[in-house]
Amino acid sequence: MRPTPPEKLRLGGMALANGLLVHGPTHWAAAVRDPDGEIRVASGLKPELGSDAVERVPGVRGVLRLAEALAVIPLVKRALPDARLPMQEPRTIGAVTAAALAGQAVRRSGGASRTLAREAAIAGIGLMPALFALRGGDLAAYHGVEHKAIAAYEEDDERVADAAKEHDRCGSNLIAPLLASATAGHVAVRRAGLRGPLADAAVAVGSIALAVEVFALAERHPDTAMARALRRPGYEIQRALGTREPTEKQLAVGEAALAEILRVEGAAAAAGSGPR
User: Fold this and answer.
1) Above 60 in pLDDT, residue 268?
2) Cα torsion 140, 142, 145, 151: sign
3) pLDDT tens column, 139-153
């Protein structure tokens, strides 16, 4: 879990079912392959929801950064109508519905009591749709494209295909702390007598905030036992389920997205706006 080299932009991304979305400090860029086989590219400014103002406030900063990343998605769809988001695939929608029903069934089976084992099972069920989505179509391959393109840029490697398809900063490393904090949080609020959507939303936001802070701490101290323990489940999810070796055509889409984000971020820096 090595930090981004200081001379490099810190890039993140999201795999699409037919392409790649890349986030830079101030801009986003995306590339997709349309139904005719052509690569389409678009880019724009990232929405700013106040994360810079709370950069020194643990928890809040992570939630706002995530919200800014999610706010990019409708901009991508508007600029690239052919972009296929993971959550819009029919099989993913079906998996989400099935997981929601299964989670409710497990909750009802326990009555009013809430145990760590039951809440862990419910949290695990909630993770299934994401893993299910990665196993179908080209999403896992484009997840591999994301990691390879960013790693090649960070390592000055001209051969994107030679980079590893697993990456230390993948969001899969959030899964372990997210599941643990969500499980403990749900048990705590239920035992405190709290019920309803507001209580569930508070646990969800708090779990995300804690997971992001743990992730950032592990990145700042990559050689600690905690960082290694955090890396292991995320790496194994990437290796076994979350990524697949992409084809040359898929890599070409990723390279187009990477070139575009470097172009627009470079233009922003030259114009004096620079990273926020």
Assistant:
1) yes
2) negative
3) 889 999 999 999 999
